[in-house]
């Protein structure tokens, strides 16, 4: 027997026109009885009639609501291949049933989306290069309209001039591509239905302040009219990442959570399908998706770099004829991609995709970020916008130093060079000074101790990135050490250099260990950059390198390093109950410590191993650290702060580990401070 549609869900357009009840054959039915009898699908474009005045035709043509699925978030996304290479749910026959607004210039009233270059609906843009099959210099002989558009040269594609040396081919989506894209959007929305709007709120409360690559108002404007105005990857990636903080929503915490891994896999497939006609929202979605712990892939980073080049994001857009807000979006997305590439190269041990001579993006300024502290969400468990903006800016500036570090020491040619320790230290000096100056310029508001009650803080990933950069520099220097030299085998003066560089390297590891001890629950539960879990492992592996390169006869030194490594593993282990992204590092270090024990016969595995950690996914809500008190760092049950017992006068925010150049100056190596 057919059942009436729940009162809180609107009738479909066919039933509304006939002024009849919307009946469904079962709770699982997608289309109502009337639409099934006519072999059509239910659409929800028309708004309920108003008593005093009708809605404008433009609004009627572009409003849709969430698909009326019962328990949709528990149903798998069933995809079928389309002829255009995309995938779509089999229940959708055609997107023509739902009117689609192609040109946002036709929107009534005020909108940020008018006259944009890369944010038009159902249209992609591709930059024209200087050596391709179209010479941009031709355009100076062609007339164009006030939008910079030229007469169609390759209909239906339109050539558009964005700047003096920037030309784009604007290509409308075909009907088949629209069908597939709308079907994918419906499948994504159905998977989380009816929780899509709440997941969007979570994302902009917790993730977006610390990773501000979307334009919040633009996304909300589109999503507010219809989720179908977004792209599948842009919408799906927001949902995937927001699911990690499901319990941080009062509306969702008591409900069953959709399987994020299933949605993630489908969105990832959709991302690889858009390579022929990428939009900037696809690139944004890809960058958001790479922050998920299960997605880490160097190949995906290369895919995103190619998409960005197709969109011209590596070019300077300062003088382009685009809205100021779009210029800010392009710059933020470009620098987010730059960070993705450089940190991916570091943690995966690969060569960077982005060349310095093919990168012409201007530095970010405060005006490139439209939101301010007054836009902070007051709900508990949200992140601070201003702190997130500063964190993002500082991460970009640190990444530029890391890029120089990788080019100096870790390209294939650099790795083949036979450098003496003196040569290596000379090359490392400017980078060491840059890192030191970067840390000294850290705004006070980004210290670990600067937390606000009931607010999350993502500054932890910034500090971790700094320690990772420092240790990566020392890893390069330690390559010159090789196996520990025998006494008397070093040239005069080299013995001092050898000992001093090892002490400086050990000091860096100890400072990283103290950093992990000082992390609070507000840090554990916040957004962490994709490289964080591997960065923690790199720090521990560095201690293993120090152990393995100790002098053969110096058993005490070697055991001291093993003890420090065991302490580091223990600190990560007890904190991983509230920050599961740390479990990957614990698993890697468990395996590495066992190798050290087998090699040197010492008790390198002092702590019982935590099984299956290397493959454990990160979920900020996992374990017992959720919204709770701070996790005890040394296992004595006393909570945060006891790690510094006996050194009450130590202020870790102002304490700076002596730099290499300071240590070397103390023994007269001729490497003085400026």
Structure report:
Among the domains are: 1-42, no CATH class; 123-172, no CATH class; 378-665, no CATH class. Mean pLDDT is 80; it is low at 1-8, 51-66, 68-76, 78-98 and 603-674. Helix content is 43%, strand content 4%. α8 (260-273) packs antiparallel against α9. β6 (158-163) and β7 (166-172) form a beta hairpin. It is globular and about 90 Å long. The strands form four sheets. A three-stranded antiparallel β-sheet has the order 5-7-6, with no helix packed on it. The chain has helices spanning 13-18, 33-37, 57-60, 175-192, 196-207, 216-225, 232-242, 260-273, 280-289, 298-310, 324-348, 385-409, 412-416, 421-440, 459-478, 494-518, 521-524, 532-548, 555-575, 583-600, 660-665, and strands spanning 3-4, 23-24, 80-81, 87-88, 123-127, 158-163, 166-172, 382-383, 455-456. With 674 residues, it is mainly alpha-helical. It has 21 helices and nine strands. It starts with a strand and ends in a 9-residue tail after the last helix.
């Amino acid at each position: 027997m057919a059942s009436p549609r729940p009162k809180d869900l609107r009738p479909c357009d066919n039933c509304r026109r006939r002024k009849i009840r919307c009946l469904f054959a079962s709770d699982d039915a997608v289309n109502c009885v009337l639409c099934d009898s006519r072999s059509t699908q239910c659409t929800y474009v028309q708004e309920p009639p108003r008593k005093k005045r009708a809605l404008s035709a433009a609004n009627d043509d572009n409003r849709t609501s969430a698909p009326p699925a019962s328990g949709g978030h528990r149903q798998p996304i069933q995809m079928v291949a389309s002829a255009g290479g995309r995938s779509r749910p089999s229940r959708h026959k055609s997107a023509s049933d739902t009117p689609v607004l192609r040109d946002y210039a036709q929107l009534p009233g005020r909108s940020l989306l008018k006259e944009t270059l890369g944010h038009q609906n159902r249209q992609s843009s591709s930059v024209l290069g200087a050596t391709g099959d179209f010479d941009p210099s031709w355009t100076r002989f062609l007339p164009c309209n006030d939008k910079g558009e030229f007469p169609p040269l390759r209909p239906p594609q339109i050539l558009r001039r964005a700047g003096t040396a920037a030309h784009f081919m604007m290509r409308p989506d075909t009907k088949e591509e629209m069908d597939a894209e709308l079907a994918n959007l419906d499948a994504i929305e159905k998977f989380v239905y009816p929780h899509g709007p709440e997941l969007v709120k979570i994302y902009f409360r917790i993730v977006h302040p610390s990773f501000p690559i979307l334009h919040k108002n633009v996304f909300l404007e589109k999503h507010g009219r219809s989720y179908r105005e977004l792209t599948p990857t842009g919408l799906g990636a927001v949902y995937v990442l927001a699911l990690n903080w499901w319990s941080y929503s009062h509306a969702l915490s008591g409900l069953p959570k959709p399987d994020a891994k299933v949605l993630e896999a489908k969105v990832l497939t959709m991302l690889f399908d858009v390579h022929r006609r990428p939009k900037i929202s696809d690139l944004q979605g890809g960058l958001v998706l790479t922050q998920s712990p299960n997605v880490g892939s160097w190949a995906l980073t290369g895919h995103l770099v190619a998409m960005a080049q197709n969109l011209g994001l590596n070019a300077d857009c300062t003088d382009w004829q685009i809205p100021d807000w779009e210029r800010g979006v392009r710059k933020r997305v470009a620098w987010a991609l730059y960070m993705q590439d450089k940190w991916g190269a570091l943690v995966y041990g690969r060569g960077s995709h982005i060349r310095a001579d093919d990168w012409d993006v201007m530095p970010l300024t405060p005006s490139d970020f439209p939101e301010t502290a007054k836009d902070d969400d007051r709900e508990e468990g949200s992140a601070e916008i201003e702190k997130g903006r500063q964190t993002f800016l500082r991460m970009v500036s640190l990444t530029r130093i890391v890029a120089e570090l990788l080019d100096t020491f870790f390209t294939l040619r650099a790795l083949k060079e036979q450098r003496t320790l003196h040569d290596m230290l000379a090359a490392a000096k400017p980078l060491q000074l840059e890192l030191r100056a970067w840390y000294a310029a850290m705004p006070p508001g980004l210290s670990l101790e600067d937390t606000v009650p009931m607010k999350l803080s993502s500054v932890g990933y910034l500090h971790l990135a700094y320690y990772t950069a420092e240790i990566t520099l020392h890893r390069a220097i330690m390559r010159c050490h090789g196996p520990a030299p025998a006494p008397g085998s070093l040239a005069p003066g080299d013995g001092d250099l050898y000992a001093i560089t090892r002490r400086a390297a050990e000091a860096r590891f100890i400072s990283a260990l103290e950093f992990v001890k000082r992390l609070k629950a507000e840090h554990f539960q916040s957004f962490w950059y994709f490289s964080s879990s591997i960065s923690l492992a790199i720090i521990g592996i560095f201690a293993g390198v120090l152990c393995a390169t100790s002098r053969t006869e110096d058993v005490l030194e070697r055991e001291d390093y093993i003890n420090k490594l065991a302490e580091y593993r223990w600190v990560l282990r007890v904190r991983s109950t509230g920050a599961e992204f740390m479990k990957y590092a614990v698993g890697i270090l468990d395996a590495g410590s066992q190798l050290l024990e087998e090699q040197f016969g010492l008790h390198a595995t002092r702590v019982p191993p935590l099984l299956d950690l290397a493959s454990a996914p990160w979920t900020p809500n996992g374990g017992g650290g959720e919204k709770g008190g701070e996790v005890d760092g040394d296992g004595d049950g006393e909570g945060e702060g006891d790690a510094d017992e006996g050194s009450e006068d130590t202020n870790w925010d102002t304490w700076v580990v002596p730099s290499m150049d300071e240590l070397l100056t103390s023994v007269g190596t001729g490497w003085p401070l400026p």
